[in-house]
């Protein structure tokens, strides 16, 4: 019951913040327009003729079109029902769009290196482990590229480090999302995420109540590739 109540409390805190956060996401006025080029991974894991980066963004954005509602519940088998999901579900859905099975990869890494994942508490649970932000932070920190957490509106050099399909993690409350291929006029990209009541695409990189704690690129690639 402790685990169930923890999930319920987390859902309530997210939903209470959702209206405040989403209402304020457009409150920060962009600076005058600049151009920041989007770059895309050279990889095409699923051989569909598109960059993995573009596959990630399109799959994440499809959750918005689907109207996926926030739900951090525990489900046997791990995956929530269609049309439901938490912030972490945006991540595996995005990667699945590129042909990458995040659940299988996280479950296997936790099985082999359980001590690397404090959130697991020594007892792996494939029904939920891949949907917990701390576990994803460990996984992407090990196998992805860790990038700047600083965002400077209007600064092309800084903003070039923020590319479509990147993964961003915030605190206050803990949250995770995907960097969009759409940018504000000041060059800051939007984020695709689910903070409730449903998935959305907006200026969360600047306007989330907490700070950005991690910025990953997975699979890893560099802008000059």
Order of helices and strands: HHEEHHHEHEEEEHE
Output the structural class.
alpha+beta
**Average of per-residue pLDDT values:** 90
Quaternary? single chain
Which word captures the global form?
Answer: globular
How would you characterize the largest beta sheet? 6 strands, antiparallel
Helix content: 25-40%
Q: Looking across the biggest beta sheet, what order are the strands in?
A: 3-8-4-5-6-7
How many alpha or pi helices? 7
> How many beta-strand elements?
8
Kindly provide the radius of gyration, computed on alpha-carbon positions and rounded to a whole number of angstroms.
17 Å
Low-pLDDT runs of 5+ residues are 1-5, 19-28
What is the distance, rounded to the nearest whole angstrom, between the alpha carbons of the first and last residues?
Answer: 49 Å
Share of residues in strands: 5-15%
Task: Give an account of the 3D structure.
- 35% of the residues lie in helices and 15% in strands.
- With 225 residues, it is α+β, with helices and mostly antiparallel strands.
- The strands form 2 sheets. The chain has a 6-stranded antiparallel beta sheet with strand order 3-8-4-5-6-7, with helices on one face. It has a two-stranded parallel ribbon with strand order 1-2.
- A hairpin with a 6-residue loop joins strand 6 (189-193) and strand 7.
- The longest helix has 23 residues, at 2-24.
- It is globular, with a radius of gyration of 17 Å.
- The model is unreliable at 1-5 and 19-28 (pLDDT under 50).
């Amino acid at each position: 019951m402790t685990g169930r109540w923890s999930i319920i409390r987390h859902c309530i805190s997210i939903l209470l913040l959702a209206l405040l956060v989403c209402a304020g996401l457009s409150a920060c006025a962009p600076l005058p327009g600049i151009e920041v080029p989007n770059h895309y991974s050279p990889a095409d894991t699923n051989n569909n003729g598109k960059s993995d980066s573009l596959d990630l963004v399109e799959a994440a954005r499809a959750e918005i079109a689907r109207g996926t509602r926030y739900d951090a519940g525990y489900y046997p088998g791990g995956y929530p029902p269609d049309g439901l999901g938490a912030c972490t579900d945006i991540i595996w859905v995005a990667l699945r769009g590129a042909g990458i099975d995040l659940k299988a990869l996280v479950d296997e890494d936790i099985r082999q290196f359980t001590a690397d994942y404090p959130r697991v508490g020594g007892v792996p649970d494939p029904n939920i482990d891949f949907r917990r932000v701390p576990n994803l932070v460990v996984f992407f920190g090990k196998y992805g590229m860790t990038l700047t957490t600083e965002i400077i509106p209007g600064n092309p050099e800084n903003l070039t480090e923020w590319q479509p399909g990147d993964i961003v993690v915030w605190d206050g409350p803990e949250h995770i999302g995907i960097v969009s291929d759409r940018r504000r006029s000041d060059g800051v990209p939007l984020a695709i995420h689910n903070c409730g009541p449903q998935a959305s695409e907006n200026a969360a990189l600047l306007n989330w109540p907490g700070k950005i704690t991690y910025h990953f690129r997975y699979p890893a690639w560099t802008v000059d590739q």
